[in-house]
Structure formats: C-alpha cells, structure tokens
Amino acid sequence: MQTKRTDISDYVIHFLRRQDVKDLPFVFETGGRMHLSEYEKIAQMTEMECMFNIISEGGLRAGFSFRNGKATIYGTKPVVCFTEMPLFNLLEYNNLRKNPYRISDYGIAVKKKDFFKKGGRPVIYGLSPNNVFEFDDSAEQNPNLRIIKESILPLEEQYRYVAFQLGSTKNIDWTHEREWRIAGKDDIFPNIDIDDDFFRGLYLFDGEFFEEVIFIVKSRQDAVELERYIRPIQESGHTRSGLFYANIKFLVLDLAIELFNQGKLKKIEDLPSNVFYTFNYIPLSQEKIEKLHQVLEFCKLEAERLRKEYLETHETRGLYGWSHIVSWEADNPTIRYLFENGKVDIHSGYYVLKDTFNTYSQNLDCTTFIAEAICKILNEHYENIFDVVNIYD
81: part of which helix (H) or strand (E)? Predict the structure, then answer.
C-alpha cells in the first residue's frame, strides 16, 4: 500500500546546507575542547566540499543545529537529521525557501527501514498539554545547550523533541519537514582519542545497516567528480573510520527534475536508471593488454639488474622506507584493467603497482633509484600515467 502513495517514500533524506558562521556560538565547547566558530573549517565548505568530507570521514557528523548561537536540538545528544518528505516535495520546499544556509539541492538518501534499524526515529512535535515546559538547571552549566527537566521528558528522548505551537500569538510549526533524527553513535573521528558523544556521527558505508546510500547532486558533472573521488576509497574497502562495502548510487537532480516537471514521477523509487550516474569506460584492447604484460615483464628483469647495480656501488645505510610506482588515474582503462586483475593495491587514493619489482631492501635511496628508473620505462614505453611515491619507514 505504501509504495502506491505519492506522499510517502521508502527513503529518508539528509539534505546538506551551507553553515552560516553567524548561527554558531562565538565560542563553544565540544568534547572537552573549546572552539572558535570563525575557525571551524566545516563552516566554510560548499555543499560539494561537504560531500567530499563526508566520504573522507565515512559518514555524517552529529551536531546541535545551532541557530543564532543557540542549539535547536534539546538535551545533551548531538544528532543527524533526515526528512521523510518525498524528493519532489523536498525540491518544492527548497525552491520556496531559497536559503542555502537551511536547505540545498544536495543530499544523502537511505532506506527508511535501514535508518530505523540503525536507531533513527521520527521527532516528537510538542508536549502533552499537562506538561509545562521548563528548562533543567544543568543547562546553565552550558549556555549553548537546551535541556528540559527530566520529569517532563526523559533525557534519553530529548534529542527528538521539536517545539510546536498553534493558535497563539506566535505559531511554531515545523511539521512539514517530517523530520527523523538519530543520536550520533558511530566513531567518525578516528584520529581523536576521546570517548565522547561529541565525536560521534552516523557511519554510512559498512553495508551492515544500509542496503544502499544515494548521493543526491545537482549536475552530472557533480556526480562525475564525486564518483571519481569515492571510487578508490570504495575499491580499497575502507575509509578512515571503518570498512567500506556499501552500495552507492549517484542521483543527478537536473535529470530527475525534467521527469518531475512532466508530472510523471514524485518519488526516488519511481526514478529510471538513466537519472543515476554510472561510471563506464572502454576496456583495453587485446593489443594493449599484450603490450602492457610485455613491458611489465621487462620491468621485473630490469629492476633486478638495477638492484644489483646499486648494491655493488652504494652502501645500504641511510633512511629506511619504500618507493612505490603509483597512478592517480582512476578512470584510465589501464588502471581499471590492473585493478580488476589484482595487479594494484590502493593506498590514500592512489593505485600502487604490485609485483613490478622487488628490491629486497628497505634502503630508501635504493628503492627510489629503482622505482624512478622503472617508472620512466613505463611512461616512455607504455603510457605516461605513472609516478613515484616514497614512504618513510
């Protein structure tokens, strides 16, 4: 029944927005650290930069959604917010509001049932009539937060509360946003050794909870850039924060809007495959494959000769480390062939050639000498797509 209704979607959407620094407190505390809002890097990001950051960190940061220096999330738990508005209605809302600091054309959608399984819940609009709203005294210890007395609403549920008021001198009504929230629970700040809720978020890419993750972007070019950025991370199998084996899609909004404007579609579920960007490439010809293997085989023999040459004329003392022959050309047919045939590893966004040479030494000067020579052969006699990266031990 639900899938036939246009006012209900199987998805919830987290829409991105630009952070208005004026909304943040001038000074605020998170995780036992004081922050100056004007120096918050994330507050200066565009929507696409936020997308890249979400991929890099592995998920969505939880927060208190500050407005005019005050938290709009009640309680002590930072949250990640979603809406269950169908995509078409969300676009209408965006066009009406026309405020990139509140909503934009960029977002992330996940299945509602998956979000619920992870712990996401609809918000609570307003209190019962017999509950008189009162703040808890502990809120005075942190003036940036809003904490309700637990006798009115348990602290564990306060993150879901949204003020609601009709028929008085001041109407407060956000029910049109049909909001869902989840308290930050996943570690998406792995480099910070603090066990604190302020450094939690929603991890998106492990595939255990989320059947698919849809990145909603404005244009096809946005989708190309985002897919190109995420592919080596996805193919490596992990982000900075954990495993990466989620099913990722890229919804191009400009293409979807054309269908929406025809009045034929209203929901993500109804969108045809051609509004989702998918990376395609022309595979290597058999001739190029044969040449590649010939050059690689020559490089192995040449690397052994260079190793003996170096060790006969140089000492092996000095800095220790490794030199890798790499490529950043994730779209290149040769790199696609090497990846698909297990001949490259992925580190820090680049593709590392395997088994091309073995130095039998950790001396950085030796490995660099060999790697640079082999890289030159590959670039001159096959294709100029390789470089050398040194890693200190």
Answer: strand 79-83
In the numeric block, which tokens belong to residue 354? Answer: 């395997």
Angle between helical axes of 87-97 and 253-261 (0-180°, round to 10): 100
**Statement: the pTM of the whole predicted model exceeds 0.70:** yes
Q: Give the residue ranges of the chain where pLDDT is below 70.
A: 1-4, 18-44, 68-69, 90-103, 138-143, 168, 189-199, 264, 266, 316-318, 356-361
- 305: phi then psi, degrees, rounded to nearest 5: -65, -45
Q: Do 15 and 103 touch, CB atoms closer than 8 A? A: yes
Measure the CA angle with vertex 366, ends 365 and 370; round to 5°: 115
Torsion of CA 205, 206, 207, 211, to 10 degrees: -30
Query: Which of 369, 371, 364 minimizes the C-alpha distance to 386?
Result: 371
Tokens of 76: 């002590």
DSSP classification of residue 156 = G
Tokens of 138: 């502990």
19 - beta bridge partners?
A: none
Q: Which residues pair with 208 in a beta bridge?
A: none
pLDDT in tens, 6-44: 778 899 999 887 665 565 554 555 544 544 444 455 556
What is the C-alpha to C-alpha distance for residues 117 and 109, in angstroms, rounded to an integer?
A: 15
pLDDT in tens, 327-338: 999 899 999 999
